Amino acid sequence: MRDPGPVMPGNDPPARKWGMLAIVSAGFVAMTVNWFDISTGFDAIGEEYGKAIPDVAFLISVFVAAYGILHIPGGLLATKWGLRRTLALGLAIEAAGALMSATSASFAQLVLWRAVAGAGASVFAAVGIAAVSIWFRDHAHALALGVSSAAFSVGTALGLYAFADLTDAAGWRTSVVAGGVLCLAVAAASALFFRVPRGAGSLAGVQITRDGLRQALFNKDIWLYGLAFFGAYGSYLGASQLISGYGEDRHLPGGQVGAAAFLIGVAGVPGSIAAGWLADRYLSPRLLFAAGAVLEAVSLACVPLSGPHTFWIPAFGVGFMFNFVFAIWQTVPGGMRGLAPENIGTAVGLMLTISAVGGFVLPWAFGLITDGPGYTAAWTFLAVVSAATVAFCLLTRAGARASAPSSGASRAPLPGGAEARPH
Question: Any stretches that span the bilayer, and where are they (predicted)?
């Protein structure tokens, strides 16, 4: 029987945790809307600043670069300042970057403000995962993180499609401002309404300690799971950006190309929720993680094998299985032995940072291989790396999960008058 994991204080109303999940999920929607809405204005931005589309696409790259480097500092901020303030801060910084983007008088200024927006998203992302984990460590942990992962996919779809209509109607600056206002509104809601569980005072902010850093940054399993997701994470980011261009180069029907580009994003909604439901009820998270990453690799390998009427099928498979894996992967720090609740954000930040390297390296390698052996070899490369790196998770410990005591308190009351003792 699997250990149910560490128990958080149980004197909160049962509905409160779902309210906290709704706040964090709204944050992930706002975060990803502001990640992708800028792409709906690429044509107008290129015309206004005299840039070709490949140059304008750098706006996505600079956001991703900034997004990849501040996960760990964001987690440390959450330890020091508390989850609520750090959640709000990350979204507020992203909102400021989005709103200031609309004032850019030059392309260089626009690049700068997109980097600021990415930095804010980086702070929010790791802390948002931790904020869900601390409310659901004892029940429906994977399902709750599946819901917040689905919110990521919803925000992506809104940014790419709903905001395209707004951009067409009112211009790219108005569209970016709308995204920034949404992000600012959710930041305010987080500051006003998000709470940590009663009795978990360390989550409101504690001193950063050497032991806390050791728990979060020198845990072998954290590193192994970060490396295990390197291939699946980087391959998905590459596939989601490149599948449309690949379909056009193959002269596939426009409807098929559009469907593939849409499904590789929105397939994450059912994928995330299905993963959470299964992981909480039936199977080992490690087994589900490994199986999902392999199935993502199979879907990637099938992309060049698909025909003019089946191109959407592997795209759906890639999106579904990536988010399936991502939802399970996020549960690892929240259920890990020896990791205090206030250090979960930093541990998530480390995992995201390791995996984010794949988000830079693999799309770049895909381009190099495409210019040489060609597209089939490039898609096969992504599939092989995704399947190969997941082997790192097989080196992790599969034992019972337990928590370390918080630095704010060595003992926490449990239902029935028992006490949690340090391990």
Answer: 18-36, 56-79, 86-105, 111-136, 143-164, 176-194, 222-239, 259-279, 286-306, 312-332, 344-366, 378-396
